[in-house]
Amino acid sequence: MNVTFRQLKVFEAVARHLSYTRAAQELHLTQPAVSMQIKQLEESAGLPMFEQLGKKVYLTEAGKEMYSYSRNIAAQLSEAEDVLEQLKGVRRGHLDISVATTANYFATRLLAAFVSEFPDVTFSLDVTNRASLLRQLDMNEKDLVIMGRPPDEMNLDTDMFMENPLVVIASANHPLAKKRKLELAELANESFVIREQASGTRIAIQRFFTEQGIEFKTSMEMTSNEAIKQSVEAGLGLGIVSVHTLELELETRRLAVLDVKQFPILRHWYLVHRHAKRLSPVAEAFREFVMENADNFITRPEL
Ligand code: PGA
């Protein structure tokens, strides 16, 4: 097969957008130029990569296979560019990171502090849940990921850098807010507002209650920590969240942290990337910066 990088690049854009028009816009090409590259690729592969039904473009079986390879090749090429930059000793460039929904409470502060040391660095930040972070790691899409404990079986490089305690919260006027040294069993009749299935916090909570042999009732499921805190404040139930999410609410006493004997559930934050990945100079500098400075830039409320 005689495929050129240019054809692969064009193919990757069309496959990602499932649109010739949008791929052409992104690559600053005309639409006929895009169609021509795809036609040549299909001729050289001997199989169609796309099919068009009405106005919609779909990947064929061969197209799907090609897409997964072309993404890897694109990632490798960008890694190669980064490594060459490294050889030039350059400490500027772009940092593409993803963080767990909960880590967003401190990630922007860390990035701001980093950029004040490396003003020529630009970055993009994706905030998403654990399941989606694991998919991004699998596809090698990001320079670095900040998340809760990653799974052992994924062949990742992980650096633990800070504690992430999970605590039980209630509205400030909840009857349990005044009690001391609550037993976990005393929470069995309460209902909890919790995060979605794909959240790391949710998985940790479920594992904890299973280990303790206690059932916990859930009343509502939400995809953001903000929504959970507001529901808890409105009296819709108890919540279990990371202390990182609570800075403002504890300061203004809008929420109370319950004094439950078995709490906090102690988790940690990790900086993660695929084992085989060569970090760009900027990513390596950020990794070192986080490992050395995280504690100075992240304030955690006193419990
Ligand atoms: P989450 O992840 O925001 O998806 O809950 C946080 C964590 O893994 O601790």
From TrEMBL:
InterPro entries reported in the protein's UniProt record:
LysR_HTH_N, LysR_subst-bd, WH-like_DNA-bd_sf, WH_DNA-bd_sf
SUPFAM superfamilies (alphabetical): Periplasmic binding protein-like II, Winged helix' DNA-binding domain
User: What range(s) does the HTH lysR-type domain occupy?
Assistant: 3-60
Extract the Pfam families matched here.
HTH_1 (PF00126), LysR_substrate (PF03466)
Show the coiled coil region(s). Answer: none
Q: Which GO terms describe its molecular function?
A: DNA-binding transcription factor activity; transcription cis-regulatory region binding
Note whether Protein transport occurs among the keywords. Answer: no
Q: Which UniProt keywords apply?
A: DNA-binding, Transcription, Transcription regulation
User: Which family, according to UniProt?
Assistant: Belongs to the LysR transcriptional regulatory family.
Record's protein name: RuBisCO operon transcriptional regulator CbbR
User: Which organism is the protein's source?
Assistant: hydrothermal vent metagenome
> Taxonomic lineage of this organism?
unclassified sequences, metagenomes, ecological metagenomes
